[in-house]
Amino acid sequence: MRRALLFLALAQLPGSVHARAPQALACAVIAAPEGLDAQLADSMLTLDETKSKSALDTLHALVDHCAADQFLGDKERDAYFGYVLGRMARDGLDGRLKAEGISSDLIDKALDIGPGNANNPATQVTQGDLRRVATALTEAGQDPAKVTPVGWGLITAWIAATAQMFDALRVLD
Predict the structure, then answer these.
(1) How far is CA 171 from CA 18, 72, 91, in A?
(2) Domains in the chain: boundaries
(3) Most exposed residue of 1, 63, 84, 165, measured as fewest CB within 10 angstroms of its CB?
(4) pLDDT tens digit sequence for 19-31
(5) Are 67 and 80 in contact (CB under 8 A)?
(6) Which of 82, 102, 57, 85 lies closest to 167, judged by CA?
């Protein structure tokens, strides 16, 4: 018992280096009601807080429950919210990208996103990001000029959700 308490105390120290177990990161995703990922994808696309309020309130409740179970402090709880928001929005955006004929893997590869990649922090989607995606589309045999405005909106939302997820993950690791 004493060892377990010591471990918990050490895990809460600022600057302690430990990675979150995948199942701990998945807590809110697993507990989410069906369709929340699509609602969060919508929130990334519209950026309308009034339309997103219900989905974000649901996400906050899920995150609060999981954060309490994992003894997360306020900073980690906020980061966990950002992580789950980004991750679930990506889940909701992936099928929409495919329906537009755009591979989410192509976007991730073009921007060096994913496990073992740079995952550069991002506060906004830049023209440079979109140019890199356009170049990757061209290299994959797709004409970027034929991507619809909806497609470019999905690409932009994917990049923003991805940045949200990886920026938050840095705080949690």
Answers:
(1) 11, 12, 21
(2) 34-172
(3) 1
(4) 456 667 899 999 9
(5) yes
(6) 82
